[in-house]
Automatic annotation (TrEMBL):
Annotated Gene Ontology cellular component terms: cytosol
Keyword Hydrolase: no
Lineage, top ranks: Bacteria, Pseudomonadati, Pseudomonadota, Gammaproteobacteria, Lysobacterales
InterPro entries, sorted: YceD, YceD_bac
Entry function: Plays a role in synthesis, processing and/or stability of 23S rRNA.
UniProt-recorded name of the protein: Large ribosomal RNA subunit accumulation protein YceD
Family: Belongs to the DUF177 domain family.
GO biological process: ribosome biogenesis
């Protein structure tokens, strides 16, 4: 699954491995009869399972909240100010001078 690394902002392929056992049920009351390692899947009233929707749901659930490529290094959180930024007068300098008086 192609994702964008939140550390490096580069694209990487995230491997997705899903092993799932589904128990098809027509009524929620039938869920108790399923073995413990099965997930209940309620069959729609028309009896048509939409496999594309099931796969999409599993892919959405497998995506991490903050995708990070394996081996990626964190970008420095401290930005070194440029000389121009250092030379620029602070807009609050006048207030600081008034406070000292």
């Amino acid at each position: 699954l192609p994702l964008a690394c939140q550390r490096s902002l580069q694209r990487f392929l995230y491997p997705v491995h899903v092993r799932q056992r589904l128990g098809l049920i027509r009524d929620e009351a039938d869920e108790a009869a399923l073995p413990a390692d099965y997930e209940a899947l309620l069959v729609p009233e028309d009896g048509m399972l939409r496999v594309v929707d099931m796969v999409e749901d599993e892919l959405v659930l497998s995506v991490p909240v903050v995708p990070m490529a394996p081996g990626s290094e964190a970008i420095d959180a401290e930005w070194v100010p440029t000389q121009e930024e250092q030379d620029k007068a602070s807009p609050f300098a006048a207030l600081a001078a008034l406070k000292k008086q």
